[in-house]
Amino acid sequence: MIGPSSSHTAGAVRLGYVARKILEEEPVRAEIQLSGSFAQTYRGHGTDKALIAGILGFPPDDARIRDSLTHAAKRGLKWEFICENIPGAHPNTARITLAGAQGGGVTVQGASVGGGNILVDRLNGMAVHVTGRNNTLVVLHKDKPGAIAAVTNFMAYSGVNIGSFRLARPEKGGTAVMTIEVDGDIPDILAENLRILPNIIHVVLIRAV
Questions:
Q1: Which of 137, 67, 54 is nearest to 96 (CA)?
Q2: How confident is the model at residue 68 (pLDDT cuts 50, 70, 90)?
Q3: Are residues 200 and 151 both part of a single domain?
Q4: Among 93, 178, 192, 196, which has the minimal tally of Cβ within 10 Å of its Cβ?
Q5: What's the CA gap between 188 and 166, in Å, rounded?
Q6: Is residue 21 within 8 Å of residue 59, measured between CB atoms?
Q7: Spatial contact of 180 and 110, defined as CB atoms under 8 Å apart
């Protein structure tokens, strides 16, 4: 990793990286709300550079992290840091809102929980559970009978073993999200095939980082 802090630097890179992967396009604007100790020490510990580095797609051991703000400016990325408490959040929490070059957008909330590890717990306001340690599928879908079975059965047919599964739905019959961590690799074609199943709105594949 590039220091000085595993929590405030390496973990922050991973948070930014996961947000970029979920966006699935080149980000052109980033609004980053920092809470707790992130807000208090982000400049001294390089958390600002780390988050931007992750948003640019840099891994935690990339030497370019130290100059990520310069790289971001060259790419045309606009960013803003807002220090504001997020009630009930982990002390090392960032809420990252990205806008993409193709018009997409996403809001990801997560925390650096120690030792460079992270937990993303909110995606566009819905509860998720993404650690970044395993290959993960985030499946946005209609809350209809058979939607979950269709996804999990197809994964079993494809020889992909589910390590953990979580479901969140703000309301019955609305939009829901599955967070599926798997053992081993996920072929790109699997995510593409899942997208065409009935009641599936979108599928994001997040490689371990």
A1: 54
A2: very high
A3: yes
A4: 196
A5: 21
A6: no
A7: no
Q: Are strands 78-83 and 27-36 parallel, antiparallel or unpaired?
A: parallel
Closest C-alpha among 36, 27, 78, 31 to residue 56: 27
The answer to whether the predicted template modeling score (pTM) of the entire model surpasses 0.90 is: no
Report which of 63, 182, 183 is spatially closest to residue 203, judged by C-alpha positions: 182
Instruction: Give residue for tokens 């996804």.
Output: 151
- DSSP letter for 65, please: G
103/197 same-domain check: no
Dump pLDDT digits (tens) for 118-138: 999 998 888 888 888 899 999
pLDDT, one tens digit per residue, over 4-59 is 555 568 899 999 999 999 998 999 999 999 998 888 878 877 899 999 999 999 98
Report the 10 Å Cβ neighbour count for 143.
17
Q: Which of 42-51, 89-98, 156-165 has the weakest average pLDDT?
A: 42-51
Structural tokens at position 109: 């909330």
Domain that holds residue 140: 136-206
Q: How far apart are CA 94 and CA 151, in angstroms?
A: 30
The angle formed by the CA atoms of residues 176, 177 and 179, to the nearest 5 degrees, is 155
Contact yes or no for 29/44 (Cβ under 8 A): no
Here the tokens at position 208 are: 């371990």
Other C-beta atoms lying within 10 Å of the C-beta of residue 71: 16
**Same domain membership, residue 117 and residue 54:** yes
